[in-house]
Amino acid sequence: MTAPHRVLVVGASASGLTTVEALRRKGYTGSVTVLGDEPHPPYDRPPLSKQVLSGAWEPGRAALRTEDVLAALDAEFVLGDPATSLDPAARTVRTSAGRELSADAVVIATGARPRTLPGQEHLTGAHVLRTLDDATALRTDLLARGRLVVVGEGVLGAEIAATATTMGADVTMTGPQPTPLALQVGPFVSGLLADLHTERGVRLRLGNGVTGLTGRDGRVSGVRLASGEELPADVVVVAIGASPATRWLADSGLRLDNGVVCDSRCRAADGIYAVGDVARWHHEHLGRLIRLENRTNATEQAMAVAAAIVGEDRPYVPVPYFWTDQFDTKIQAHGVLSADAEVDIVEGDVAARRFVARYRSDGVTTGVLGWNMPKQARLRRQDILDALPAPAPIR
User: Fold this and answer.
1) Is the whole model's pTM more than 0.85, yes or no?
2) Which of 20, 33, 179, 242 is positioned for an S-S bond with 194, CB 3.0–4.6 A?
3) What residues contact residue 66 under an 8 Å CB cut-off, 6+ apart?
């Protein structure tokens, strides 16, 4: 396979930037264009709910690279101009400003869009947290008004609740699951997270469905639960997950099903690749399509896509991984942590809040989680690799 002369990366995200950097490291000398919908140069998202929101970092510190480093990539960055359509056969992308950008290979790295509640967009003080501008707007609002309700008990919601509490806000977390991160880490660890948040002052109103927001004079005033109760609020953050940003691809003819569906090389069509939160690809070890929304996957998958573009032929078969920092607790999770898995402690002490938990299904290790033991959890990742079945290619 001959490397393409022109590469177009749609999405100036961590995955988009890493694709460009990996191409250059592999000796690719062709032209590269990066199209981004935001006006900002590539920045990191994990600090938004922690360091940027708390004020420990100025917003500019979230930038992934300096201007000099970006310039050294010899890539054209077209920012603040969202993609509106893709013609895969011509490998041409059209933008909101009327540009037509063509290439020999197109990498879709448009990420995901936060889900919202009905009517949320009409209420001041009702926020999502996905972008740098979202983080600065939420921080400004929290500093002026201290009563926050976080709708959503997943990773993002729990991080926001923890950060806002350390800022002095009066925080309530609500959502349908019984404990924070119940779907991500299972009942044992999520129960410990519930204790942690309660001890630090977060008011947990979990196991409650949310039907909508209430407002007064155009500003949010509360969160309405399925029970009919209203939780009063000066500020609300809705963190109920995100949907792959594929609307602009509706007429492309690509297969869209909870993301851009790809083969095991992250290829959606001839010369078309997808990477990061928007990509749903065939994982040959797991034998199914998966989509991962985390920073580590954004980087690792980008490197795999760059390799595919220059002609390397290897399946992308990562061990899923995510981390989260809440208060003074650092959690690292490797593999698949099923809610019904058998969980035992293989290192450390739960009472001391330093431990590694092993997750097993039918006697097979599928995941490990470290609570304030990152090195030990990383070493235990080998247990997952040893238990992986042989690759199951698409038939």
Assistant:
1) yes
2) 179
3) none
pLDDT digits (tens, 9 = 90+) for 280-301: 999 998 899 999 999 999 999 9
* 53: containing domain: 6-113+243-309
- Based on its alpha-carbon atoms, the radius of gyration of the chain, rounded to whole angstroms, reads 22
Degrees to nearest 5, angle at CA 167 with 164 and 169: 60
Q: How many domains, in total, are found in the chain?
A: 3
Distance CA 393, CA 283 (A): 8
Tell me how far CA of residue 204 lies from CA of 50, 132, 162, 188, 192, in angstroms.
20, 27, 12, 17, 13
- Domain-embedded: residue 298: yes
Query: Tell me, what's the pLDDT at 391?
Result: 58
Residue type, 308: A
Alpha-carbon distance of 56 to 361, in angstroms, equals: 41
Pair 93, 10: CB distance under 8 Å: yes
Sign of the alpha-carbon dihedral angle for 55, 328, 148, 153? positive
Structure tokens at 179: 């404990």
Backbone angles phi, psi at 375, to 5 degrees: -65, -45
| Portion of the chain with pLDDT greater than 70, in percent | 98
Q: Which of 215, 240, 265 is the last residue of a domain?
A: 240
358/271 same-domain check: no
Distance (Å, whole) CA 296 – CA 311: 23
Per-residue pLDDT band for 395 (boundaries 50, 70, 90) equals very low
CATH number at residue 15: 3.50.50.60
Half-sphere exposure of 80 (CA within 13 A, CB side): 2
Say yes or no: 46 and 18 in one domain. yes
pLDDT of residue 110: 98
Q: Are residues 151 and 262 in the same domain?
A: no
Mark which of 309, 336, 357 sits at the end of a domain: 309
In a domain, 154, yes or no: yes
